[in-house]
């Protein structure tokens, strides 16, 4: 493949990975494998390196592609493997046991506790970070 | 089945979020992470300003209040597949 084509392919893979991840975030298979975007950026970087190596006349397109994909790879890897990491630690959760009861207030100010659902209906408890 | 969403977000913000997304969750506020701590679900210093934040987790309790399934994420971009959660609820 020519340097030009490799450059274009590199940019397409890099930008395509960003767009695809953003667009398909609601699909669990995509959302739950964020390392896939890091892999895509690595591929784009490799393509840009190849483009640079094969460049005969103008090198700047391949250099730009390398800059773009390299930056995305560094930023993506940093985010996925460092920033987004949640440390593993033992929880109070055990299948077959009741978790601690609690009482917290809902948006209307009403108290909500797990005990009020016992004997009535199943509960799905979702803890999330907030700060949106 | 009741879905209860717990976070340190103040209730006004959760309510706005719920209305914006038109969810039928019950949002409850756990502002000092007392409940998250009780459950062992605190990520110390994990917040954008270095504050403690909850570890994202989904827990399925049966009608007797017993844990039947749970998932705690090691990467905050990752959430349990809704199909897995549904399967766990249907198996109750």
Instruction: Return residue spans of chain A where pLDDT drops below 50 for at least 5 consecutive residues.
Output: none
State Rg of chain B.
14 Å
Low-pLDDT stretches of chain B: none
Count of DSSP H/I helices of chain A: 4
Q: Level of helix content of chain A? A: 40-55%
Distance between the termini of chain B: 11 Å
- Major sheet of chain B: 2 strands, parallel
Question: How does this structure look, described?
Answer:
The complex is a heterodimer of chains A (132) and B (92). Helices cover 52% and strands 9% of the residues of chain A. Chain A is mainly α and 132 residues long. In chain A, strands 1-2 form a two-stranded antiparallel sheet. In chain A, helix 1 (3-23) runs antiparallel to helix 3 (35-54) and helix 3 (35-54) runs antiparallel to helix 4. Chain B is α+β, with helices and mostly antiparallel strands. Chain B has 2 domains: 1-55, no CATH class; 57-92. Chain B has helices at residues 11-21, 34-38, 82-90, and strands spanning 2-7, 26-29, 42-43, 53-54, 57-61, 67-72. The radius of gyration of chain B is 14 Å and the shape is globular. Chain B starts with a strand and ends with a helix. The mean pLDDT of chain B is 87. Chains A and B meet through helix 2, strand 1 and strand 3 of A and strand 1, helix 1, strand 2, helix 2 and strand 4 of B. Strand 1 of chain A pairs antiparallel with strand 2 of chain B.
